[in-house]
Amino acid sequence: MKSLKVLGNKKVVAIFLLSGLVVLMAFSIKDDLAATMKKMKSEKASVMKKHQDLLSERYDLSDRPSDIKMSGNKKFVQKDVRVKLPQGVNWEQLASMKPEDIQEKGYWPKGFYPLPHPNHPEGGMIFPQTHIDEIKKQEGRDLTRFDLDFDLPGHLLPEFPSPMYLTTRPDLGDVSKGQLVTIKNYYELFKDILNPKQLDGLRLLVTPFPQQQFNATDDRRSEFASLGVTCFDCHTNGHSNGATHLVGDIRPQEFRHRLDVPTLRGVNIQRLFGSQRALKTVEDFTEFEQRAAYFDGDITLAAKKGMNILERGSQVHFMSEFQELMDFPPAPKLDLYRRLNPEKASKSELNGEMIFFGKAKCGNCHQAPYYTDNLMHNLKVERFYKPQMINGMMASADGPIKTFPLRGIKDSPPYMHDGRLLTLEDVVEFFNLVQGIKLTAQEKQDLVAFMKTL
Hints:
454 residues, 11 strands, two-stranded antiparallel ribbon, alpha+beta, 2 domains, globular, three-stranded antiparallel beta sheet
């Protein structure tokens, strides 16, 4: 830093010398919170209606459970294709068309376009109401935003609270005992399961720290000054509650991607972290989240709002060591190599496995035993549509995305990095078009049945 000058008590201008270039970074927290809150509250209904209209135009949001439950046995997996088709065309007709023809005729289903944030120009973390209510009950900490509500219905999200499995104690099953793990109960739940270093890592994962929308400054989106958020406010019990926000490392704002919170189950077998960042260790990712992602990549605002600098040699290491213990859920129909056991699987599931590794080419990227190749791939979905602005988001090229593991996939709706696909049936239709593989109706059904066994 070459100089730091405070102008009054409102504005800080910092000049940094980076690689021989002088970069001027300025920030100002000057808007009156009461006025901002009043304005955004008055606009909230219209903002949410615009987004809900978009969702209704894209999807069938009804509650239609299948007969398969998620691994915690508390919630049924939703079924059926929910993406609405363009008028005058069916899935079979679409599958027979070339990408350029689909683009020219405007036949790309709207539910297959990138999904915007409920208020894309504003962005920020938004939590499902079930999580908000439980955190308020346990800690008295309020994760409600005065300007926005979460957008997707609860039946289309992961079960809450999700079970937690440890690689070190598979004999215990759900070590959370059906509870949402928080700063209030983590010690009693884990003091006899973890060593002191792992226990401290878990403590940090459930400790609230300042974040862009939830902090003590006047520039926030919570009505009351807040301690912030925890890692497990999104990755509940080391899994996901479906919370959403925008990635922090893309500009301008309209090109930022909505991010559906991925599960942390099985991070011990992963070699890339972040849907596009491709960070190489979970330690890198843990530190990156606190230093940058929590504040939309804006280090000046992070400093003003109270960024928590994690010490790499102890805190980051402890947090990462615990994360490496989080296991995938049980899959009783899979054998030691995580392929189907013929004696336990149905005919449809066995046929789906054959399609998965054969005609559908899923296994090219999602390889057993964990159903990932730990690489990144560019599907080039933009072949099917023309770039366009959707509720403040520019729908264009996604670029390369990491291959997420499919173990336990039935527990992790919605799907894709931005949550644009609501069910596994939607996933099959999406990849059937993108890959041009022309699956039959029965093959699609069998493929879904197989993925539910993972």
